[in-house]
Amino acid sequence: MPSSLPPGIAPDLASLIRLQHGARGFSFQPGQPVRSLLAGRRASRIRGRGLSFEEIRAYRPGDDVRMMDWRATARTGRAQTRVFTEERDRPVLLVVELTPAMFFGTVRAVKSVVAAEAAALAAWRCLAGGDRIGAVLFGDDGVETLRPTRSRVAVMRLLSSMVRRATRLARTPPSPASSTPLNAALAQAEALAPHGTLVVVVFDLLSADAGTAAAARRIARHNDIVAIPISDPLERRLPDAPWRGIATDGGGFSVLDPAASGLGPAIASGFAQRLARLNTAGQRSEIPVLPLGTEADTAEQLRRQLGRQARRRR
Questions:
Q1: Same domain, 213 and 274
Q2: Is residue 66 located within the same domain as residue 154?
Q3: Would you say residue 75 lies in a domain?
Q4: Distance between CA atoms of 26 and 181, rounded to whole angstroms?
Q5: Residues 64 and 118 in one domain
Q6: Region Disordered: start and end of each range (predicted)?
């Protein structure tokens, strides 16, 4: 599904397919401490695959006594033990925001392109690890769910859906970021994810609120969750004065004059506070927070945060 739009404006299916070769140097496997860009001493860890109950059978010499099923033993009068097997794969659920607010960017790409790239990299990396890939894609036009499946076909279906949705944003009127679609998608993910799922949430940093943190805490009780907020340099810090500009949120226009209004410091301070709240909420629930920007290569940003810095700090 080639796009007639420039690559920084809308993702192209071929480019997302090529990212499978760049999905290296980082991992969502257990034992990967995510420390970068998280304040404080506690390191979040991704638990990874667990154990799946298989059967109850008669105790055999050499069985782990900690696996004894005392109720079954009392009921049958013979020693019984529980047998578990290691899960061979793990369901992965990618929750990806593709709202009109994500169609914004001032450097390399708009935020919706970075979101699609991050989700594609996660999908290829997890598929290579033998995991099942599913998704919850959402925008102002609703939610699309793809149940976790371990196949290249499932990843291709995900990529095609993201390209279609992201391309539509170029023809959609702009609107401000809102937490409502994000929190509704997280509720959908909570209902869809079985215990032990890896939930990777790729979203506009400006969309998150207290309800987002509460939904993430609920998901994290029985699953692993990774938060990937996306932002643009202009949202973090305005250029130094003097300059003037016009801004719109889709509903009205305003004049930007950081020299006269003190808007520049307010933007930088507001962004720093928002990111700090997100990091604090992530720490409390042991959720890694991996901010991505629109100005740099997405694969390199993930490698730096999930790979190189983790190895350096071991």
A1: yes
A2: no
A3: yes
A4: 29
A5: no
A6: 291-314
AA identity, residue 225: I
Reading the block at residue 96, the tokens are: 């990806």
Q: 160 in a domain, yes or no?
A: yes
Per-residue pLDDT of 219-254, as tens digits, reads 999 999 999 999 999 999 888 777 777 776 666 777
Predicted TM-score (pTM) of the model is 0.80
Residue 228 lies in a domain: yes
Contact 249, 313 (CB under 8 A): no
Range of the domain at 120: 13-33+89-312
- Residues 196 and 290 grouped into a single domain: yes
Query: Which helix (H) or strand (E) covers residue 113, if one does?
Result: helix 111-128
List, in order, residues 6 or more apart from 281 with CB less than 8 Å away.
Answer: 213, 216, 217, 287
151: Cα separation from own chain's centroid: 20
Contact criterion met (CB below 8 Å) for 81 and 152: no
Tell whether 73 and 189 lie within a shared domain.
no
Distance CA 269, CA 272 (A): 5
224-231/198-204 β-pairing: parallel
DSSP 18-82: HGGGT--S---STT-EE-TT--SSPPEE-----EEEEEEEE--TT--GGGB-HHHHHHHSS-EEE
Question: What is the rounded distance in angstroms from the CA atom of residue 280 to the CA atom of residue 212?
Answer: 13
Cis peptide before 2, with omega less than 30 degrees from 0?
no
Q: Is 41 inside a domain boundary?
A: no
Q: Same domain for 70 and 219?
A: no
Q: Which two tokens stand for residue 162?
A: 């993201």
Do 74 and 110 reside in the same domain of the chain?
no
* Phi, psi angle pair for 120, to nearest 5°: -65, -40
Same structural domain, 23 and 76: no
Task: Please count the other Cβ atoms lying within 10 Å of the Cβ belonging to residue 79.
Answer: 15
∠ CA(60), CA(61), CA(66), 5° rounding? 80
